[in-house]
From TrEMBL:
The protein's name in its UniProt record: ATP-binding cassette domain-containing protein
Biological processes, Gene Ontology terms: peptide transport; transmembrane transport
UniProt entry tagged with the keyword tRNA processing: no
Residue ranges occupied by any ABC transporter domain in the UniProt entry: 46-285
PROSITE patterns for the chain: ABC_TRANSPORTER_1, ABC_TRANSPORTER_2
Family annotation (PANTHER family): D,D-DIPEPTIDE TRANSPORT ATP-BINDING PROTEIN DDPF-RELATED (PTHR43776:SF7), TRANSPORT ATP-BINDING PROTEIN (PTHR43776)
Organism: Haloterrigena alkaliphila
Keywords from the UniProt entry: ATP-binding, Nucleotide-binding, Transport
A Pfam family of this chain: ABC_tran
């Protein structure tokens, strides 16, 4: 730890740039689900069967393994609710893991006592999204920045004040504002105060949870630039959590993509953005709004809802929305037959077409020719179930809509059970280390397309 009369930063870090500072292995965090009238009963229309019993936990983070190198920024990206914050907080042991290990500079944080952890907390810090609520409005910013130093018994009053003022300058604020209250500062400035506070105890590793999401786009880059300068000067390592791909692209050296509690892809930034290997990553990248005036709106947006983390799909958790679900081995389907069958299965499951006679369904989805063999027989049965629904619906002038629902549901169940649930995507959890085309490090992709 530097003394207050020494320049700040360059703490006594014993690791070299590029060495592994954090190693997470099999990290899992399951929460108890809310109890209530339907506690233990789960409904998920994207699953077969859609209702399940007895599962009363939220699988927020499930068997995640990652390494972070000294001095790098690992971006963690994924849709809201995929488990990013839970992963960040579990790594810091702000919440206890259900399973797995967190090795920080070789020591297992998951095994540490509260007192050991308290001492470690000077080396690992966290900054949060909302600088408004994380700064106590009654305290002066000088006190706010000094608080962690006081908690760790660092320096005397004079030393802490000197360091706080120096940090204010480092983060781009005026040290003369030491006695002001947080309300006197803008959102971007408040996030800078947060940074100064986190850096006051000279950490090596900072988990940044959506630190610029609440800021105007014009301010985001300025704050990220400051974070990069401080990273260089202080030798910091960042785990940078964001849902916004442009933010991730700006700040990261490597990127990890998370979906429903799993890490689905990890690669160096350029490799990930230019050569994505996971269908989820591709879908995420394609759903970035296109700044072309001829194209209105957003393209490539993912179909369907994210399944519940209370009852996540087996195998690859993305498979229920994946446009590239793999054909089950037991049917000898051509690529075209499988593409038709998969599209039909999805359309039936989501009821995205109007009821129509069997011949029209065959023409619309299969160009008139159903797949050959056993697969074709199953598809034929499903087509009949959907078509008979239409007849049932037409004949029931009394409004017997139950019959309507049953045919579609039976067809969807038959197709999902016969095809989706027999795919390797449903049976095995994927994990493949691939060669990077544009980078130098391994490209991890959790997708059976790369088996
Ligand atoms: N204390 C808790 N108890 C029960 N479930 C929780 C708890 N905290 C988080 N979850 C659930 O865990 C899942 C992951 O949440 P988490 O906040 O980690 O996601 P996130 O990717 O950070 O999303 P966001 O960006 O919206 O914060 C969600 O389904 C969430 O509802």
């Amino acid at each position: 730890m530097s003394r207050p009369d020494e320049p700040i930063g360059f703490g006594d870090t014993d690791l070299e740039h590029g060495e592994t500072v954090l190693e997470v292995d099999g990290l899992t965090k399951h929460f108890a689900a809310d109890s209530g009238l339907f506690a233990g009963v789960n409904f998920d229309p994207d699953r077969f069967p859609p209702v399940s019993f007895g599962v009363d936990r939220v699988e927020a983070v499930d068997d995640v393994s990652l390494e972070i190198e000294m001095g790098e920024t690992l971006g963690l990206v994924g849709e809201s609710g995929c488990g990013k914050s839970t992963l960040g907080r579990t790594i810091l042991r702000l919440i206890d893991p259900t399973d797995g290990t967190i090795r920080f500079k070789g020591e297992d944080l998951s095994e540490m006592s509260d007192e050991q952890l308290r001492r470690k907390r000077s080396e690992i810090q966290m900054i949060f999204q909302d600088p408004q609520s994380s700064l106590d409005p009654r305290m002066k910013i000088g006190q706010i920045i000094e608080e962690p130093m006081r908690a760790h018994g660092m320096f005397d009053d004079e030393g802490r004040e000197a360091r706080a003022k120096e940090l204010l300058e480092k983060v781009g604020l005026d040290p003369r504002h030491y006695n002001r209250h947080p309300h006197a500062f803008s959102g971007g400035q408040r996030q800078r105060i947060n940074l100064a506070r986190a850096l006051s105890v000279d950490p090596d590793f900072v988990v940044c949870d959506e630190p610029v999401s609440a800021l105007d786009v014009s301010i985001q880059a300025q704050v990220m630039n400051t974070m990069e300068e401080l990273q260089e000067e202080f030798g910091l390592t960042y785990l940078f959590i964001a849902h916004d791909l442009s933010v991730i692209r700006y700040i990261s050296d490597r990127v990890a993509v998370m979906y429903l509690g799993h890490i689905v892809e990890v690669a160096e930034k350029e490799e990930l953005f230019e050569n994505p290997k996971h269908p989820y990553t591709k879908a995420l990248l394609e759903s970035i709004p296109v700044p072309d005036p001829r194209e209105s709106g957003v393209r490539g947006v993912l179909e369907g809802e994210v399944p519940s983390p209370q009852n996540p799909p087996s195998g690859c958790r993305f498979r229920t929305r994946c446009p590239q679900l793999i054909a089950p081995d037991e049917y000898d389907l051509t690529d075209e037959e499988w593409a038709h069958t998969r599209a039909f299965m999805r359309a039936v499951k989501r009821r995205t077409f109007e009821p129509m006679p069997a011949t029209e369904i065959r023409r619309e989805f299969f160009g008139g020719d159903l797949p050959r063999g056993e697969a074709g027989e199953i598809v034929a049965d499903a087509v009949e179930l959907v078509a008979s629904d239409r007849e049932g619906g037409n004949s029931s002038e009394a409004g017997d809509t139950d019959a309507d629902r049953d045919g579609w549901t039976d067809a969807a169940d038959l197709l999902l059970e016969s095809f989706a649930e027999r795919s390797i995507c449903a049976r095995e959890r994927p994990a493949y280390d691939l060669e990077s085309e544009l980078g130098t490090e391994t490209h991890f992709a959790a997708c059976h397309l790369h088996r």
